[in-house]
């Protein structure tokens, strides 16, 4: 046999056909079944024993100076809540409970084209009380900040209204030629100020740490499906690895 023929023989000898692959899988079906059952079993155990997490959300409607116009932009409130309120609330709670860190995070955002601030956390049932206290602490600070802004705005507008009424009373006693025009202007200003005062609405809490109806994260059905797929893949890989290991041992025995 020429060197070229010998190389061709070795090449054909090393090739594995689909029949060979199928034969390996058939011969190793018991091992494959064990691997598959173990992996799927672990997936089932994890799916049903792993703690279920839920999304807890709180909603705050910002104070308005007129319908659809926020007294303070929701974006500014989100920035304050993240940078000024959340940290102190968290530290107070950690000192009180002795925890090193909260077992959940707090996301604060303003949905687009809305006048609300939403706080959300993903946590298990056992941490619901902690979530409620953190959210309530942040909401209380938001309410206090907004209340101060509303009171300042009302006081400012009441002063303007009082001044306008005093000016109107003085103009009505005047006999000047332009008194009528000034009177009309002042009455319009007074009406506008009164309307603006009536339009001011306080911020309010819509809900505090309300639990989602469905668990958050990966569902049990998806975990089971992934377990089945992973079990099948590992079973096939395991069968080939066992076959390879068997061939290596046989080769070592022959050469030994």
From TrEMBL:
A cellular-component GO term for this protein: plasma membrane
Keyword match Transmembrane helix: yes
Cellular localization per UniProt: Cell membrane
Coiled coil: 147-174
Membrane topology category: Multi-pass membrane protein
Keywords: Cell membrane, Coiled coil, Membrane, Transmembrane, Transmembrane helix
Protein name: Subunit length determinant protein
GO molecular function list: protein tyrosine kinase activity
Protein origin, superkingdom: Bacteria
Sequence ranges assigned to domain Polysaccharide chain length determinant N-terminal in this UniProt record: 14-67
Membrane-traversing stretches: 31-49, 222-244
């Amino acid at each position: 046999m020429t060197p070229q023929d010998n190389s061709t023989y070795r090449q054909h000898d090393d090739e594995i056909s689909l029949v060979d692959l199928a034969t390996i899988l058939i011969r190793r079906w018991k091992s494959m079944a064990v691997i598959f059952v173990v992996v799927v079993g672990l997936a089932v155990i994890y799916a049903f024993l792993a703690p279920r997490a839920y999304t807890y959300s709180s909603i705050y409607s910002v104070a308005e100076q007129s319908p659809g116009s926020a007294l303070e932009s929701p974006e500014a409130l989100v920035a304050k809540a993240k940078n000024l309120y959340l940290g102190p609330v968290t530290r107070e709670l950690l000192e009180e409970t002795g925890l090193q860190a909260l077992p959940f995070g707090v996301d604060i955002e303003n949905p687009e084209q809305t006048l609300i601030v939403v706080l959300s956390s993903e946590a298990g049932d056992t941490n619901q009380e902690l979530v409620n206290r953190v959210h309530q602490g942040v909401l209380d600070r938001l309410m206090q900040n907004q209340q101060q802004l509303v009171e300042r705005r009302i006081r400012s507008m009441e002063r303007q209204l009082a001044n306008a009424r005093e000016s109107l009373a003085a103009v009505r006693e005047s006999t000047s030629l332009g008194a009528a025009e000034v009177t009309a202007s002042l009455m319009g200003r007074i009406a506008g100020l009164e309307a603006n005062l009536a339009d001011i609405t306080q911020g309010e809490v819509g809900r505090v740490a309300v639990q989602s109806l469905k668990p958050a994260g990966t569902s049990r059905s998806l975990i089971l499906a992934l377990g089945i797929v992973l079990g099948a893949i590992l079973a096939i890989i395991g069968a080939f690895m066992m076959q390879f290991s068997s061939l290596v041992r046989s080769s070592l025995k022959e050469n030994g």
